[in-house]
Design brief:
The complex is a heterodimer. Chain A is built from 8 helices and 10 strands. In chain B, about 10% of the residues lie in helices and about 35% in strands. In chain B, strands 2-1-5-3-4 form a 5-stranded mixed β-sheet, with helices on one face. In chain B, strand 1 and strand 2 form a beta hairpin. Classes of the chains: A alpha/beta, B mainly beta.
C-alpha cells in the first residue's frame, strides 16, 4: 500500500486519476474504473445534442468517484473560462482540469493561454489543475498563480509514447520539492506509469492507455500496480547506476 | 403584432421557439432534462435558480452543455 496524498485539502489514497473517454461500452468503463482503484475521474463538457434523446453520462459513473470536469477542446483562455464556469454550474464542483489546446495535430497545450485562464479561475475560487508542457518555469508560474498542483504532459495526448523527457520531470521534481506534480497524458503502458512515478510524480492522469487496451479492466489493474510500484521505488531511493559489474556473491572463497 | 416564434441560436443551430418563454420553459420545449446540465446565454452562465426569471429574446445565443466521456 502506498501513502496517500492531499490535493486542495482532499485526501486521495489512489495516485491514479483516470478518464472516461474512448471506452467501447459503459460496462467496460465501469469495470476499468473499479479495477484501477481510482478515486477521481475526468469528464468533458459538451453541447447537448438537440436532435435526439439525451441520457446522462454521469449516471454511468460510480457515485463515490470525484468528478473532475475538463476544458478539453478549448483553444483560447476565454473558451476555457466559459467551459469551466458551465461545468461548475452543472456539477456544483469548483474543481477543473484546465486544458487550453494550441494545435490540433499535437494537442500540445497553449501555455500562455493556460496561465491567463488559470489566473482568472483561481480568483473565481476554482481548484485549477492545469495541463501544460513539461516546463519548470511554466510550472512555477502556474503555482504562483494559485494552482494547487501542476499537470505536465509525458507525451502528446493519446500517443501512448510514455515519458519523452524524463530529465524535465526530474528537474521539476527536484526544483519544486513541495509541489504536487501530476503527470497528465502520454502514458501507454504500465512501465510508462512506473517510470513517471519513479521520477517523483505524485500521481498520474491517464485515459487512452486504459480505454484502448484490448482488455481495459486488466490494463487498469496493471496501471494501479505500476503506480504503486513506481511510488514505492521512488520513496525507496534507488541504487546508483554504474558502468561495470559489482558482484552480489562473495568473490573470495569460491572453489578453484 | 406579436410574432408566433422567435429565432435563437442554440448550440450553434438556429431554432424557432415560442416568444416570451424563459430558460426553464426552453429546456422543457427542447425536451431536455433539467439536471446536470448548464446554460449560457450570450456567453454568460445563467444560474439554475435564475432560469425561470430569464426570458429568451430574438437573436439570443444560447449554449446548453452536459457531460460526456473525456480525459
Amino acid at each position: 500500500m502506498t501513502d496517500s496524498f492531499q490535493l486542495a485539502g482532499k485526501l486521495f489514497r489512489s495516485r491514479l486519476i483516470i478518464g472516461t473517454g474512448k471506452y467501447r461500452s459503459y460496462q467496460e468503463m465501469q469495470d476499468a474504473h473499479k479495477a484501477s482503484g481510482a478515486e477521481m475521474v475526468t469528464v468533458a463538457v459538451n453541447r447537448v445534442p438537440l436532435d435526439r434523446k439525451v441520457e446522462s453520462f454521469l449516471d454511468h459513473l460510480d457515485p463515490q468517484m470525484q468528478i473532475l470536469p475538463n476544458t478539453a477542446g478549448c483553444y483560447t483562455a476565454e473558451d476555457a473560462l466559459r467551459t469551466a464556469r458551465l461545468a461548475r454550474e452543472a456539477l456544483e464542483t469548483d474543481w477543473v482540469k484546465l486544458e487550453v489546446i494550441g494545435d490540433q495535430t499535437t494537442l500540445f497545450p497553449d501555455n500562455e493561454q493556460t496561465l491567463a485562464a488559470a489566473r482568472v479561475l483561481v480568483k473565481e475560487g476554482f481548484v485549477v489543475l492545469p495541463y501544460f508542457t513539461d516546463d519548470l518555469i511554466m510550472a512555477k508560474k502556474l503555482l504562483d498563480a494559485g494552482c494547487p498542483a501542476v499537470m505536465p504532459l509525458a507525451a502528446p495526448i493519446g500517443s501512448g509514447m510514455g515519458v519523452q523527457n524524463p530529465a524535465n520531470l526530474r528537474i521539476m521534481r527536484e526544483q519544486l520539492p513541495d509541489a504536487i506534480i501530476i503527470v497528465d497524458a502520454g502514458v501507454g503502458t504500465a512501465s510508462d506509469a512506473a517510470i513517471a512515478m519513479e521520477l517523483g510524480a505524485d500521481a498520474i492522469l491517464m485515459n487512452t492507455a486504459i480505454a484502448e487496451a484490448t482488455n481495459a479492466a486488466q490494463m487498469a489493474e496493471a496501471m494501479k500496480l505500476a503506480v504503486q510500484a513506481g511510488r514505492l521505488a521512488y520513496q525507496s531511493g534507488r541504487m546508483s547506476k554504474r558502468l561495470y559489474a559489482s558482484a552480489s556473491s562473495p568473490i573470495q572463497g569460491a572453489i578453484k | 403584432m406579436i410574432p408566433k416564434t422567435i429565432g435563437v441560436k442554440i448550440n450553434g443551430e438556429i431554432k424557432q421557439v415560442p416568444p416570451d418563454i424563459n430558460l426553464a420553459e426552453l429546456l422543457k420545449h427542447l425536451e431536455l432534462p433539467a439536471e446536470r446540465l448548464a446554460v449560457e446565454l450570450n456567453s454568460e452562465v445563467v444560474r439554475r435558480i435564475n432560469w425561470e426569471n430569464v426570458k429568451v429574446k430574438d437573436a439570443d445565443k444560447i449554449e446548453i452543455v452536459h457531460f460526456v466521456g473525456g480525459g
